[in-house]
Every structure is written in C-alpha cells, then in structure tokens.
Amino acid sequence: MSEPITTAVVGIGDISAVHLAAIAGNPRVRLVGVCDVDPERAAQASERLGVPGFTDHQSLFDALHPQVVHVTTPHHQHVPVALDAIEAGVHVLTEKPVGHTVAEAEELAERARTASVKVGLVLQNRYNPTSVAVRDALASGVLGPIAGGRASVWWSRPAPYYAAAPWRGRWSEGGGGALINQAIHTLDLLLWFVGDPVTVRGKAANLADDTIEVEDNATIVIDHEGGPRTVFFATNSHHTNAAVELEITGRDGTLTLAAGELRLTDADGTRMLATDAQADGARSYWGLGHALLIDDFYARLDDPEPFWLTPDVGLGALRVLRTTYAQSGLLPDGTPL
Q1: Fewest 10 Å CB contacts: which of 9, 179, 207, 316?
Q2: Residue 336's pLDDT is what?
Q3: Do 315 and 108 touch, CB atoms closer than 8 A?
C-alpha cells in the first residue's frame, strides 16, 4: 500500500469542519497539521485532532512540508495563503470565493496556470446529482434553444452569525455579504448551466441588518452569450434556510430544481430526473458535495492535467457579484473590483 497523502488545514472556522471530516474519511489521506491565526483556536484544534498546531501558515509549510493544504480561512486570506503554498510546492484546495476581490483572484488564477502543483477551488454544488443531471439534460438538447432561467437563495443569517465571526460583515475581510459568502454557489451554477455573462445589471443592499457593513439582499439580471437572460435573487433576511430554487427554460421544455429535486417538463409531461441526498444536522442545506469534491481532488492528484475546478473557473461568478456591488455603490472608496 502506498504512503498516505499528507495534508494540512489552514483556517479553523466553521467550514473547516467539513474539510476535516472529509480528510478523516479518506483512507488515502493523513492530516499532519492545522493552523489558525487565533492561538487558542489553533491550540484547541491541535489537541482535538492530535496534530501540531500553528498560528502562521508559512511556519507550518516549513516545519511539516505537507503535500496538500486546504485553505479555509476568511476570504481576504485565501489568495495570500494559496500563493505561499504554491511557492512552497504544496498542492492547494481553497474554499470559495477564489479571492475577495477580482484583482486578487486574477493574480491567483494567473499564478496557478503555470504552477507545478494543483490548485483547486471548492465549488461543491457542481457535484450535486441534480447539477450533474442538469448538465446532462442540457448537453442532450432536450430543452432545445435556451430562452433563459432564474435562481434564488432564501437563507437566514441573523446578527449572532456575524457576531461570532465579525469578518463576515466587513468589506475589507469578507469582500461582501450574501452574494459572495452564501449565494455564490448558486450563481456559479447558473453561469455553468446557461453560459458566460455578456451584460450584468444588479442591485445589492443592506435592508435588514444594521450591525454589518455588507449586503444582505441582491437581485441581478444577466444576459448570457447567445441571448438567454437569467434573473438571480439572494437574501440572508429570510426567517430560515430554504432549499435553493433554480429553473431553466428552453423552446421544448423546462428544468426545475426545488426542494432538492430536479424535474423536466416537456411535451411528454413532467418527470423527475434526479434528487440530492440530504445531509444531517443544522447545516443540512449545505448538502454533501464537499466530501465528493475533496475525494475527487485527491483522486486526481497524480493526473498530469490541472484539477477541473481551477481558480479561473471561479472568476465568472466573482466578477458578476463584484460588478453588482460596484453598480450599487457599495464598494468603499478606493476598493478594487
């Protein structure tokens, strides 16, 4: 049996739990270290997981030389940590967004294109059975020419959510709110399904939570290559976390995703194409895509080709949402797109 792949996790916040669980569940992978800028959090994770803990990611790279690093930090730290990992010869799997500004994301994307290591981006909803089924249906031509579509994210992020991790509510660290932190996954799917945007017209605002700087509601109209138009809505002001809804309509039929079920309606009636398995617990609406993506990243580590979800893949949704922020007058003076 070959030696396990050594890996480390930088950033021990909420999302790291999903990564750590996937690592623990993969017999080909061995966790060798953790890092967080908060000394207490780093120490607690070190004790709990039985591996060395660090407060500086470069020190971790120098001491442990992991083969892979998972970047699960606040958004503004994604690119600096990833760039340092590439320089150290460490494969990178970074959480979304690829960067908290387009300029930083483009820097990482450019570096990743010529890197000797793999650089992957976590867009786990592309692994959902319903997402795969949408892509298959579109490839089959069952809908005919696409006219347009819609998608919506109705979630809840009350004040305690931001109080627990204040960076989430700040432009300088989060890079935005509902769009960049929660709805970016659904926005990514919409672009993946319908195509690259040609024009973007959006409006984002903070309507319900005056304890944060960033937006909690947004509406975007996107005209795509070839003519389709989609409308996207996201809110963090709902009373609960509802299932994502998405619809794509063509000349010959409509695909509808609701409550984790994908249905096709055409001249033959309505039939179910796929369902998404539901996770357990308070964050069940996150789905199960993380583990599938992480396992796939490790399975492809020895492939000569880049991992299919590169930083370049994440630029589309990031440009759309940051453009919406700019159009809404939300970006602080001097902040790059």
Answers
A1: 207
A2: 82
A3: no
| Residue appearing with tokens 């650089």 | 119
Location of structure tokens 């953790």: 34
Enumerate residue ranges in the chain where pLDDT < 70.
1, 278-287
CATH class, domain 125-276+311-327, is alpha beta
Structure-block tokens of residue 285: 């609406």
Query: What is the per-residue pLDDT for 278?
Result: 67
Position 283 scores a pLDDT of 54
- Residue 281's pLDDT is 56
Q: Which two tokens mark 56?
A: 């500086």
What is the spatial distance between Cα 39 and Cα 170, in angstroms, rounded to a whole number?
A: 22
Inter-residue contact 144 to 266 (CB < 8 Å): no
The CATH number of the structural domain formed by 5-124 is: 3.40.50.720
- Is 0.85 surpassed by the pTM of this model? yes
Amino acid at 215: E
d(CA 87, CA 80): 11
